[in-house]
Every structure is written in structure tokens, then in C-alpha cells.
Amino acid sequence: MFNNYNLLDLMVTDYGNYARKILRIVFSRDELKSSILPPGKPHFRRQPLDQDRFKICMNAIPYKFKLDVVNFGLFYPALLRRKLTDFLIEERRRESTKEARQSIQRNDTQQRSQADF
After folding, report:
1. Which of 9, 21, 63, 79 has the most CB atoms in a 10 Å sphere around its CB?
2. What is the pLDDT of residue 86?
């Protein structure tokens, strides 16, 4: 449970999709864009996500996919960590891509309106 929301009730197709959805529920968009996965190191530029809330996310995954502690310990570094890292990178890129697309659309609109005169 997180803020009266049962994380196990999410309908998903696979573990990567589930992990991304629960991260979006537990963390704000700004936190996802400006953070890295825990544990962070002091030499990294970005701060890690809040470890307590991240543990909530990581505790839900073994329950949802019926993994024991040993299997999850192997599963996380081998498969899930890479998916989550890529997800955080895409969250950062998504905003800049959106801004670039909007800027191009504004320029096109301005050029069309100037051509009409």
C-alpha cells in the first residue's frame, strides 16, 4: 500500500512495465527527472531517489511476480536495474524532446502566419 493505493492491483504485462508504473505513482515527475537509483554515491551529480519510498516499490515487485528473496536478489541487478535506469534516463529526455517539438511547432506556426500576410 502507498497512500491508500494498493500497488498490487495494477494491471501490467511484465515486470518492467510494473516497475515503471509504481515508480510513477510513488515519485513525482520532478523527482524521476532529477534523481538516480539508490544507493547514490557522493561523487554523482544527481541525488538518489528516496530510499524508503524506493523500498516500497521494490518490496511490491516480489509479491506481484511471486519471487522469493534469493531470486529477487539475482533478478534485480541482472534484469530490473537496467530497465529502471533506462526509465529514469527517458524521463529526463522526454521533457527536452517535448520542448523541442513545441518550439518547432511554434516556429512553423509563425512562419505560416507571416506567409499569409
Report:
1. 21
2. 94
* Number of neighbours of residue 46 by Cβ within 10 angstroms: 13
Instruction: Read off the pLDDT of residues 73-84 as tens digits, 9 standing for 90 and up.
Output: 999 999 999 999
User: What is the third-level CATH fold of 7-116?
Assistant: Arc Repressor Mutant, subunit A (1.10.10)
Cross-strand partners of 36: 48
Place of cell 541482472: 78
d(CA 33, CA 90): 9
Instruction: Please return the burial class of 31, using the count of CB atoms within 10 Å of its CB with bins 0-12, 13-18 and 19+.
Output: middle
**Rounded to whole angstroms, how far apart are CA atoms 17 and 20?**
5
Residue ranges in the chain modelled with pLDDT below 70: 115-117
- What sign has the CA pseudo-torsion 8, 26, 29, 92? negative
Q: Where exactly are the structural domains of the chain? A: 7-116
30-46 pLDDT, tens digit each: 999 988 898 877 787 88
